[in-house]
Amino acid sequence: MFKNKINISYLKNDLPAGLVVWLVALPLCIGIAQGSDADPFAGIIAGIIGGLVVTLFSGSRFGVSGPAAGLITIVVAAIHELGYEAFLLAVVLSGIIQFLLGLFRLGVVGYFIPTSVINGMLAAIGITLILKQIPHALGVDSDPEGEMAFEQIDGENTFSEIFLSFDNLALGALLIFLVSMIILLVWELPAVKKNNKLKLIPASLLVVVVGSLLNQLFGSVGGNFGEMTFLGSSHLVNLPDALTTGDYKNLLVTPDFSMEAFSNKEIYVYAVTLALVASIETLLCLEATDKLDPDKNISPTNKELKAQGIGNFLSGLLGGLPITMVIVRSSANINANAKSPMSAFYHGMFLLLGVFLFPKVLEYIPLSSLAAILIIIGFKLVKIKNVISQFKTDWENGLVIIVTIIAVLLTDLLSGVGIGFVLAMFFLLRKNYELAFISHIDSENNKAVISFAQIVSFLNKGALMQTLQDIPNGSQVKISAKKCHTMSNEIQEVITDFRDISSKKNNIDLELIGFDKFLSN
C-alpha cells in the first residue's frame, strides 16, 4: 500500500507541494473546528488523519482530506444535542457506515454527476473562497477560516461581511496582504518559473515568512504608525493553549462507549447523516479533483469511500471532527505541482510536527498572508473561459454552470450542487424526451415516417402520443423499430392502441417495421 505510493524521484515536487497544502490546511482545520463549536485541536486531528491515514488507503492521486465546511451545520447540531463524547461515537459509526458503502460498491453514484455541475461547483467554490477571504485581507477576522456558507456564524452573510470589513479596516493587515499578493503574482511570472533557484522556493512559504516578519517590524517601529499597523493575536493564527504550553494531557477526547450512548437513537441518526453527507461531498470533490488533474486520472470511488470510512473511524476515536475530501486543499495540491499522493501525506506530517514542535512560531503567521494564498487558489478554480465556451457550444450546460454557481454562493455547497443537479437532470430528460424517435410528417402528400432510437422509455410517451395525433387522416404511415432494442411497456401500449384503434378509425395505412419482438399480433 505505502510502497505503491512513494516515489523518491517525485520528492522534489511532492515535499514543497505538501508544504503549500499544509499552510492552506492549518488555518482551515482550526477555523472549521471553531465554526463547529469544537476545540480547535479537533480540526487539527482530522487534518492529520486525513493526510497520514486516508492518503494511504485512497486511490486518488491528488486528493487531500480533512475537516470540511460542508459538515459544520450537522456537527454543530450533533454536538449541542448529544454532547461531544456522544457525537464522537456518531463519527466512529459514520466511518463504519462509509466503509460498508464502499464495500458494497455504492461509490458508483459519483460517476453520474454531470460535468456541468462539477464545473459550476469548482467555479462557485473559487468565487466563495475569494469573497470569504476579502475580510481577512482587510483585517476583519470575526468569521472563522474555512466557513463557506452564505449565512455566517457571526450573524453576517458573505456580502455584508465584506461591506463591514471596509468600515473596520486594519491597515497592517491590508499592507501585509498587498505585499503577499505581489510575491504570489511575481512567482507566477514565466521568468521566475524558469529560474532554477527561485522556483525551488515555495511562494506560499515565502509569503507567510515575509508577512510574519513585516508584522514584527510594524510592532518594533512604535509611534502612531506602529499602533496603526501592528496586528495582535486576533489577526494571527491561533493554536490551542495546550499546544503552546505543552500541557497535552487533555488534548485527546475519547467517544462515549457506554450502553446509554449505544441505546440513544439520535446517535444513529447523526451517524447515518454524517456518513451520507460526507460521502456525497467526497464523491463530488473526487470527481472535481480528477477534472483538475492534468493527466485526467480516474480515481476509484469505492476505494475512496472505504478510505474515508477508515479516516472517520480513527478521527472519532481520537476526538477529531468528521473528514471528507476537500477541493480547496486538493486544488492547492495540484497547483503546487505535486506528482504523487505522497504530497498529501507530507501535508499531514507537517501538520503533526508543526503543531507539536514549533506551535509558537506558527502563531506569528498573519491571517491576511494566508488570505492572499487562498485568493490565488480561488482565482485558479474560477475558469471564466470554460463557462463562456460552454455557452457557445451548449447553452444548457452553460446555464447549469451559472445556476450552480449562484446557488452555491447563496446557500452552501451541497444545496447549491443539488439545485444544479436538478436543472441538469431536467435538460437531460428533455433531450431524452425529444431524441428517442425521429418523425417526418408530410401533410401535403399524407405521408409520415417515424423511426425509433435504440432506447425508448416511458419518458417519451407524451411526445409519441402528440406526434401520432398530428398525423392527418388517410395518411400512409411507417413506424420503424429496427434500431430499437429496449422499449417500455407504456410505449408498446401506445403503438398497440394506434395500430388497433386510431389507425383504423382515421383511415390510416399503417406499416410497422421491426415490432415483432415487442408487440403481440
Question: What do these coordinates show?
Answer:
- This protein has helices at residues 11-35, 40-57, 72-82, 84-103, 115-137, 158-167, 171-186, 190-194, 203-221, 223-229, 241-245, 259-262, 265-292, 301-317, 327-335, 342-357, 359-362, 367-381, 384-393, 395-410, 413-435, 461-469, 489-505; strands spanning 65-66, 324-325, 437-442, 447-452, 455-456, 476-480, 486-487, 509-513.
- It is mainly alpha-helical and 521 residues long.
- Helix 3 packs across helix 4 (84-103) and helix 13 (265-292) packs parallel to helix 15.
List keywords for this structure.
four-stranded mixed β-sheet, two-stranded antiparallel sheet, about 525 residues, elongated, 23 helices, about 65% helix, mainly alpha
Summarize the structure.
The chain is built from 23 helices and 8 strands. The protein has 521 residues and is mainly alpha-helical. The strands form 3 sheets. It has a 4-stranded mixed beta sheet with strand order 3-4-6-8, covered by helices on one side. The protein has a two-stranded antiparallel sheet with strand order 1-2.
Task: Indicate the topology.
Elements: H1 11-35, H2 40-57, E1 65-66, H3 72-82, H4 84-103, H5 115-137, H6 158-167, H7 171-186, H8 190-194, H9 203-221, H10 223-229, H11 241-245, H12 259-262, H13 265-292, H14 301-317, E2 324-325, H15 327-335, H16 342-357, H17 359-362, H18 367-381, H19 384-393, H20 395-410, H21 413-435, E3 437-442, E4 447-452, E5 455-456, H22 461-469, E6 476-480, E7 486-487, H23 489-505, E8 509-513
Helix pairs in contact: 1-2, 1-15, 1-16, 2-14, 2-16, 3-4, 3-13, 4-13, 4-14, 5-6, 5-13, 5-18, 5-20, 5-21, 7-9, 7-18, 9-10, 9-18, 13-14, 13-15, 15-18, 19-20, 20-21, 22-23
